[in-house]
Design a protein that fits this description.
The chain is of the alpha/beta class. It contains 7 helices and 8 strands.
Length: 175
């Protein structure tokens, strides 16, 4: 997959979406793109993993996402494994100072990740200084660009752009 991102100059773009139950990470999906020429990015890695939490997911979560406790028992992994896979697989050899994180609700997603031991907010540079990882919130920017406060859900925006999201509220489809 190749995409064009106007006025974008980061070497890497990571689009993410999460599903979580009371701030406990359940699903993490991401698409990592690498710049191949000016404003042109190619998909380098895709990532989709489920965490099997110690506590059962609630009825409302399962109804909202379609992710059931049985599914998580069969397909989920321990949180420590998910944390390690984000670092060692998805972001392997990606300099965080060259990364832009893109999410629909970036502030909340970063908080959920932080609460679950995954830091995509800051990194430590070669001099030992803590620096922010650049980010782009599609929700906030859609609100600003479209000049409205409603109809800003991912599905609303996708439909308006001519796309249909099958199985919304599953992070791999939403990302």
């Amino acid at each position: 997959m190749v995409i064009k991102c106007y006025n974008e100059h980061h070497q890497y773009l990571l689009f993410i979406d999460l599903e979580f139950n009371d701030h406990e990470l359940i699903q993490f999906a991401g698409l990592l793109f690498v710049r191949i020429e000016d404003e042109i990015y190619q998909l380098a890695r895709s990532f989709n993993q489920y965490h099997n939490p110690d506590e059962k997911v609630g009825y409302h979560f399962a109804e909202y996402t379609g992710i059931t406790q049985n599914f998580l028992q069969e397909n989920g992994i321990p949180l420590s494994d998910l944390q390690q896979n984000v670092t060692d697989v998805l972001l392997k050899d990606v300099p965080l100072n060259q990364l832009e994180l893109i999410s629909h609700g970036l502030k909340n997603d970063r908080m959920v990740l932080q609460d679950n031991g995954i830091n995509l907010s800051t990194y430590t540079d070669a001099e030992g200084k803590i620096k922010p990882i650049d980010g782009y919130c599609t929700y906030n920017n859609s609100r600003r660009i479209l000049g409205r406060k409603t109809q800003l859900k991912e599905g609303d925006l996708a439909e308006e752009a001519g796309y249909y999201i099958h199985n919304a509220h599953n992070a791999v489809n939403d990302v």
